[in-house]
Structures are given as structure tokens and as C-alpha cells.
Amino acid sequence: MATATPWGLAEKETWFKQQPIRRSYLKDVVTKIERLKMSYDVVQYGTLSLNPSHYPLFLVKTKNFNPKKKTIVITGGVHGYETSGVHGAIAFMEREALKYADKFNIICAPCISPWAYETINRWNPKAIDPNRSFTSDSPAEECELFLKAMQPYTNNVYAHFDLHETTDTDNTIFRPAKALRDGKPEDPWSEIPDGFYLVGDSANPRPEFQKAIIQSVKKVTHIAPADEHGHIIGEKLEQEGVVNYPVKKLFLCTGFSNAEYTTTTEVYPDSPKVTAENCVDAQVAAITGGLDFLSQ
Fold this sequence. Notes:
The model has no long low-confidence stretch (mean pLDDT 96). This protein has helices spanning 9-17, 25-35, 83-95, 114-119, 141-150, 169-182, 207-218, 276-294, and strands spanning 41-47, 56-61, 70-76, 104-109, 157-165, 197-201, 231-232, 235-236, 242-245, 261-267. The chain has a single domain, classed as Aminopeptidase (3-Layer(aba) Sandwich), CATH 3.40.630.10. It is built from 8 helices and 10 strands. Strand 3, helix 3 (83-95) and strand 4 (104-109) form a beta-alpha-beta unit. The longest helix is centred in the last third of the chain and has 19 residues, at 276-294. The strands form 2 sheets. Strands 1-2-4-3-5-10-6-9 form an 8-stranded mixed beta sheet, with helices on both faces. A two-stranded antiparallel sheet has the order 7-8. The radius of gyration is 18 Å and the shape is globular.
């Protein structure tokens, strides 16, 4: 069977020009980050070259950073269209992070991909998926800037929470677009899981850590069931609400360090059972559930 021709630079540029701005990163996100300066050290670590004044990038850190404490990393907006990941990271810093500051250093990157946040996209402006690009020679500027900013801390990361969503548009928009970009057939997932789930690291699964997070999130929202084959998004269910990926081999965000504990959250914002606020609350509950487990 013949395959289509993968996109070249011209096709990627055409795609880029077709992406309208749908919301404001500066208004929705940066204004909230600015307010965190009262309680945290807020550091600008770069800006996107596409529009430097429009896309500043920030780390939010607990004050009095102590190298003797264990360091927790929280990332949101690796995929900019996954809204509760961005606002869940900020909400955790607003509501909960100071409760853990005596025990842990906390570093939060609320929105790694601000252009994608504004255009509600999975990819960056060059049609690259950032969450397959956390490598030392990354083709994604968003990943390159984040990794450079994290270099002083990478060897000391104890746990990493990467906040994501799985949406209906994964099947209707992004997987079809990937097939066109790569010139390869891309079968849709059999179904988008209705509920919250986690992606652990198949090389370092930490099942009790993942279980503690699921139990915390259960108090806020429902957990995704497996499909008829015992899978979620095509992957074998390891325990309730948990699948595992080889995160380092796939160059996912949670694989950038050698953290002892990592998890990727997946909220389903299109469920009729949830609201936008509930999705943010689920992200916060995931982090607090994990940190409570690590605090024992």
C-alpha cells in the first residue's frame, strides 16, 4: 500500500499559518504567575523566538532553596492545548505548595509551550511534539530552553509530576494530523478513556506511588476504566488507572532526569461528568496525593 509523502518545510509552514490564536497566554497564565511572586521566587528562563515579548517562560520555585532537601518538579503545558495541566500546576502553587516547602524544594514550570497554549495545539510552531523531544539535542525550542534551565537541578530531582490531558481531539484532530505530517497511517485509539489515569515509567514503575495518587484523585473525580481488552490508549492496564510507558526511550518530559518517582497525569476534560474546575482540582489532588505518599 502506497504511503503519503511526509511533510517538508513548506507543508509545515502552511500548517503553522493555518493556526489561529484562540486565547491569551499573557492574560490567562502570565498574570497568575506574576501574582505568585509574593510567595515564591519566579524566574524567567527564556522566551520563544517566535515572539519574544509575547512568550516569556517561567520557573516558580520555593524560597530558601536548600540543596539538602529533596527536589520536586512539576511541569504543565508541555502540550499547550491540555488546559488543566497549565492551570493545575498554577493552582497547586497557589493553594498547596507552601504546605510542603519545609520538606521539599519545589520547582514548577507552569507552561512549557505557550504558543501551543494560545493556539490550542499539541505541537509547537514547527509541528514538533515537545513530549517526544526532551533530548540533549532537542529539535523543540521549548524543550531545549527547559532543559537548559533545569541543568543546575537535574541531578537532584526526587520526583516529577508532569500534568497532561487526553482529549477527544486526540482522535479527531491530532492523530489524523500526525498521519499527514509523517506520511504514515495512524489508527485512532479504539476509545478515549472517560476519566483520569496515570502514565508511569515501565523501567521504574513505582506502583505504590501511582496507587497513592489514584486514591487521592478518586476523592475529586472518576478514574478511567480499561477498555474491553484491558487497555487504556492501547496500553495494558497495570493497576487501576495506571499504564506504563518507556519514558526515557520516548524522550518524554518525565524522563529528562533520573528522578526516583515520576508520573504523568491524564485528565479527560471532555467527560460529561466533569467541569473545567474539577479538572484543575484533579491535577492538584494528583500532586498532593503523591507528595503525601513521599512525605511518609
